[in-house]
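Notes to self after the call with IL:
- keep both proteins in one doc
- input above output, always
- annotate only the second one for now

Protein 1:
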Amino acid sequence: MSGEVDVNEILITPIATLIRELSKSVADAQLQLDAAALASQNALPTELRELGYEPTWYQIPEAQVELKMAVHYERSQPSGPVRVWATPFNAKYRNALNYTADGSSTLTLRIVPVPPHVADKA
């Protein structure tokens, strides 16, 4: 073992990026479910459509994510903004950096659908 840590392998990333990517993954999964249902609906024989048959549409009504992670705060200048970096706390991270679970944090997200925003008409 060389002792060097490949940050891409242990997934060190800003927390905002982590949350954004998790949210995009949930949205992408929903799009794939919708596309599969639409393809099934379009493939229905006319006779079944006339009888009122419709394929099942699935939805992800809620996604909950809980991550154990190591958190690192960084400020490049004394008066500059603080950046928060996180990495999932896993075996690779623990072994590569000799990190213990005592210092890990938990990030819990709940992603739920909401009705689209309708602009007020004045």
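Protein 2 (the one to annotate):
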Amino acid sequence: MVTEFECGRPAVAGRTIRLPYVARAGGLAAREFLEVIELPGGLGQVPGQVRQPLLRLLSVAAGLSYFKAFAPAAITAPGGLTARERDFLDQLVNCGLGEFAYVNSLPEVFDTKIAAPELPQADGPASPARPGQGRALVAVGGGKDSIVSIEALKAAGFEFELFAVNSFKPITDTAAAAGLPLHLVDRRIDPGLLELNQAGAPNGHVPVTAVNSLLAVLSALALGFDSVVFSNEASSSAGNLVWQGRQINHQWSKSLEFERLLRQTLPAGAPQYVSLLRPLSELRIARRFAQLPTYHQVFTSCNRAFKLRQSERTSWCADCPKCRFVFLGLAPFLSRAAVLEIFGGRDMFADGAQLPGFCDLLGAGPGAKPFECVGEAAECRVALDLLRAHPDWQDHAFLARPELRDVHASPAEQQAVFTFREHEHCLPKALEAVARAI
């Protein structure tokens, strides 16, 4: 039985990062893994006091993909961690693995011990962002949120280029539609992990945005960018349920709590990290995206567009929480014909099999908020009320369903959903002005 999971010392050669991991039983190696990452540029010019802490953070964050196959177990980092890095890892385990622990009934994960020599704390964290200065690397995932950020930054005259982890059609098509350079990271998971998963090892959600965020920061360093901009919105901070006295949040590594944690942990000299859409609701973002028809046949939020096997990929499955949420969120701001065109002619409201899923999104069903990147129940209820007043949708049989007859947004919810959330963001003034204009 594996009792210890070791995050080895990262190695860098040119653009290549190698992350070694060892699962140990009784002190002996039971399974070894090697993750290989290709950055879009080399790190040779980056000072060691900046590069090495970032590599340590990447090692422990990416290592959770492998750790979960052996949980519960202790995590060791023989190369050492600073006090801030140890706290970062502790939060990744206790918050970022919350859904994994819940789904697999493993509350012991919250008691994971971390063993690592304590390294001296260097200067930091990184200084506040310089408003309106420098070049930004903007993360793009092929969905509506990053597209809204792209067009908002364009309109404000910012200098920026795009970043993504691994190449998928919605991402490359978005970059082409935006007319901007796209810098790709190639992240290659050790195939041994997939073998373990197929054999029945514990599996589930990990804080992948934490990994992607660190890869973006390293890529910005390699390419000479001053800041990294993500597009995580306000609803990312809302949890799904409470279990073992803890809030379980599928989107924790997209939350404001994580954004602040990472900003506090980055070493001095690292690019600034911020989420442009943080003070905005999903519905406010959808309203803006509806005004960007150039991207309507390019984007997707469906996870099935990003399957590892290309043969399993599809633009919209029209049968998952993310498809339901985007359909519901866009419908108030587009014609019925435009929404159906996005979804390949499929009317998800007319499909009775989708009703329980819509009820879960609206907070009107027996289920909790789905473990997906979807908005809050309150903004879904506001969207439903807007549909009732929309000439293309108000007579739709979906709105007459008895399950939805008494589902309405409160006056407070109607007011809050389009309100800019003051003080719930880390934006410097120049970027705050961009967000307010969305």
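Annotation: Residues 281-416 form one domain. The first helix runs from residue 48 to 67.
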